[in-house]
Amino acid sequence: QVQLVESGGGLVQPGESLRLPCVASGLTFSRYAMNWYRQAPGKERELVATMAVAGGSSSYAESVKGRFAISRDNAKNTVYLDMNSLKPEDTAVYYCKAQHRNVLSIRYWGQGTQVTVSS
Questions:
Q1: pLDDT digits (tens, 9 = 90+) for 16-28
Q2: What gap in Å lies between CA 24 and CA 13, rounded to an integer?
Q3: Strand, helix or coil at 88?
């Protein structure tokens, strides 16, 4: 059974930082590209960051470029999202997704973790 478990969310003040880990189990982690999405109340889910299978290349939404960083540790089956200089508009539920490198229909989602940025 495949599971993706996010953690690390919480309430922070503007300008502060958070690190979100997502631990995967039940799959061969190194065969999956890893993505972070977020969904704010009343809005569609949006792609925040993505990292290739081998961890060499990554991409980011314009709204988070220069502030967020995605990384992965294949030995720990974990992908991270480091979020710096947080803004109130970053408030959302953050989800990780595993996307098989060859078969696009094979993908798994975590349950999400809430991040709230407020003074």
A1: 999 999 999 999 9
A2: 29
A3: helix
